[in-house]
Amino acid sequence: MTLAHADVADATQNVHAAAVAFKNYVEKESQGKIQVAVSPGAALGNTASLQEMTMSGEIEAATSQTEGTIAIVYPNIQAMTVPYLFQSVDQALDVFRGAYGQGLFEDMRRQTGLRVIGLWDNGGFRNFTNNKRPVHSPADMAGLSIRTMDIPAHMELVRSLGAKPTPISWAEVYTSLQTGVVDGQENSIPIVILGSLQEVQKYMILDHHVYTQQHLMVNDAWFQTLSPAHQQIILRGGEKAGLAGERAARVYREIGKSIIGKKMEIYTPTQDELAQFKAAAQAPVLKFIREKGVSDPKWVDGILTAADEALVGLGYAKK
């Protein structure tokens, strides 16, 4: 089987770490009867192309980000873009590895033929950076031009905070920031470092506005051709991949703060300031996702409930 991804072939990075863990586990447990060829670095195409190739069965497996590519074929995944929903990565992973996530991914399998077998955070939470001024509250966002992905919910989030969203491809982000085409951008700490964006940005606020996730997916029709024993190996391999990706993301996120801190001013908002961001952005973006994002609003209602239940289950809140 081929497992392809568009990220760097570096096992300290979460995507390749997950791919290597999957390969090692599956080949060992199948006693070599399943061979996994990992194709990194977009050698076979970008993330969207790899997703299409997995759906068609041209390759057996690929990784894909939540909103950027999966939403193209499965709009309900945009329920994950509700801003200021999760307080920690642990809470988010509990939601998506639990009943809510399993229900969502089963619905996705039926609609797309893509079976999610592993998931982990793609560096954790997205944060705002810019070149103009420190941001401590929504008022400080007013008038800033912020690069976003071409994701309507992300653009609505930026607008709700008084800034101007500008969709720009990842390949052009560094130059756009360097030349002043836009004032800032939003990404998780590991992704900022991956793009060396700390070289062309001055200020970061750790507002954690949207949780971002990676998925390891296989072609379900191919999966169904496997023996029950090999299916279980593939599923357990996906779990191993998810844990490996999670570990790499956590380590790189913590190291990344010190790397970014040498170039940029990093601000950690108070609870009161975070409440201001949530009050300004969550309601309008929720409305947008329900009306123009997902195809079935029940997944939006469900994620709100699941997020509260996860806090209780993890001991961070009482019933």
Distance between the termini: 46 Å
Strand content: 15-25%
Q: Mind summarizing the main beta sheet?
A: 9 strands, mixed
* Overall pLDDT level: 95
Contiguous runs where pLDDT drops below 50 for at least 5 residues: none
Please provide the count of β strands.
9
Shape type: globular
Backbone CA Rg = 19 Å
Structure annotation, total helices = 12
Helix percent reads 40-55%
Order of helices and strands: EHEHEHHHEEHEHEHEHHEHH
Structural class: alpha/beta
Characterise the protein shown here.
There is one protein chain. This protein has 319 residues and is an alpha/beta fold. Helix content is 49%, strand content 19%. The chain has twelve helices and nine strands. The chain has helices spanning 14-29, 47-56, 66-73, 89-97, 99-112, 152-160, 173-178, 189-194, 220-224, 228-261, 271-293, 298-313; strands at 2-4, 37-39, 61-65, 114-130, 145-148, 164-167, 184-187, 203-219, 265-267. Strands 1, 2, 3, 4, 5, 6, 7, 8 and 9 form a nine-stranded mixed β-sheet that branches. Helix 6 links the parallel strand 5 (145-148) and strand 6 (164-167). Helix 1 (14-29) runs antiparallel to helix 10 (228-261), helix 4 crosses helix 12 (298-313) and helix 6 (152-160) crosses helix 11 (271-293). The longest helix has 34 residues, at 228-261. It is globular. It starts with a strand and ends in a 6-residue tail after the last helix. The model has no long low-confidence stretch (mean pLDDT 95).
